Amino acid sequence: MPNGPPHEDKPKQSFISGSVGIATIFGVPIRLHFTFILLLVFLLFIGVGGQQSGATTALYILALFASVLLHELGHTLVAKRYGIRTTEIVMFPIGGVSRPERQPKAREELWIALAGPTVNLLIAVALLAWVASRQGFVALEQLRQPTDANLAERIALGNLMLWLFNLLPAYPMDGGRILRSFLALHRPEEEATRIAAGAGQALAVFMGLAGLLWGNYILVFVALFVYLGASQEGAAARGRILTSGFPVHAAMITDFRTLQHGETIRDAGNLLLATSQHDFPVMHGDAVIGLLTRAALVRAMLTDGPDAYVSGAMAREFPRVSPDIPLTDALPLLAGPGACALVMDEDGYLKGMLTSENLSEFILLRQATMAQSKLHPQ
Fold it and tell me: Which stretches within the chain are classed as H helix?
């Protein structure tokens, strides 16, 4: 029996690239995407000055950040009620994204999607009630000029805008998920997803054109993110649907090459050129001890030279999955381009490889098979 890594029933967790972790709340990692950090710096830069102090500007931005985070935690807590674990919450410029461990059912998705905007509405109502009890309501036109005195009203207004924006009936906003959940009650899941994602893309195009006509480039920026988000959500949902019911071994690569730990970077480079393979399991006898990616190979060639051993450049921690788990459970591991996971049985034997490229080919063949069956039903 090889001294392979212990068997894992579930794929190892992977995070959205370009994000950095800052905290863990309710067992859920909270991460900031680098674009969100750039947005915070930009907002601080343009907000300082005028009738609002720098401290109040920072407090206003932190309050909106907390509002978005509480919005996502609302999704997380309701998802937890249905037994769905959230793998991470990532903060993007247009809002947060909470990634569930599995796709919720239609009725579950309805309540999970409603939870986030409801949190923002409750925050807004609570702040407005507090302001009204102390000094009465302020006219909306007075909120156009940020001051230290109208901080609470502007935070409340920001939460009302988050509430309304997220209820727009278009993927990937919560309103689009609500629309999708209603459609999925009466239509196939793939069709419901296609309609909701299409609505998101149409709304993004409209927002982008409006932003260009009005000279509002922030609106154009938001429209771009909405369009990309709708496209990605639609593609991810189609991937889940088309891989549903299949185990990992149905899509894994079985014809592949490996490297022994005593081979050199030169040997790995020759193998890279001789095959179409980009990632190579590194073996010690029959046991897998690492994974050498193309990026690591090139980096080692530049820094250590062609005579260095692959064991010094390989990753000892790498994604691995069982051949018998559902293929949909392995999808998060292969979300990025060029991603690779090794397929290993409970005894640590290497059975195959699963890459984002061959997963895409599997999905493409599934689409062709389904289209053929519709054209020529039995």
Answer: 34-47, 54-81, 106-134, 151-166, 174-184, 189-214, 217-243, 265-274, 294-303, 327-330, 356-375
Measured CA to CA, the distance from residue 233 to residue 228 in angstroms comes to 8
The amino acid present at 102, given as its one-letter code, is R
Position 140 confidence tier, pLDDT thresholds 50, 70, 90: low
Whether 355 has a pLDDT exceeding 60, the answer reads yes
User: Which pTM value belongs to this model?
Assistant: 0.67
Q: How far apart are CA 298 and CA 300, in angstroms?
A: 5
Residue 2 has pLDDT above 50, yes or no: no
pLDDT band of residue 12 (cuts 50, 70, 90) is: very low
Closest to 243 measured CA to CA, from 174, 180, 136, 334: 334
Half-sphere exposure of 33 toward its Cβ, with a 13 Å CA cutoff? 17
Who contacts 265 (Cβ-Cβ below 8 Å, separation ≥6)? Answer: 297, 300, 301, 304, 305, 306, 307, 308, 309, 310, 313
Instruction: Please choose, from the candidates 95, 79, 82, the residue with its C-alpha nearest in 3D space to the C-alpha of residue 28.
Output: 79
Active site residues: 72
Q: Is the confidence at residue 297, as pLDDT, over 70?
A: yes
Amino acid occupying residue 226? V
Residue with tokens 């149409």: 202
How far apart are the C-alpha atoms of 98 and 29, rounded to whole Å?
10
Determine contact, residues 11/335, Cβ cutoff 8 Å: no
Is the predicted pLDDT of residue 48 greater than 60, yes or no? Answer: no
- Show Cβ contacts of residue 85 under 8 Å, excluding neighbours closer than 6 positions: 79, 100, 101
Band (284; pLDDT cuts 50, 70, 90):
very high
Closest listed residue to residue 52, CA positions, set 150, 137, 131: 150
- Where does 264-349 show beta strands of DSSP type E? 280-284, 287-292, 320-321, 340-344
CA neighbor of 166 nearest in space, from 222, 90, 87, 126: 222
Match 């640590």 to its residue by tokens. Answer: 348
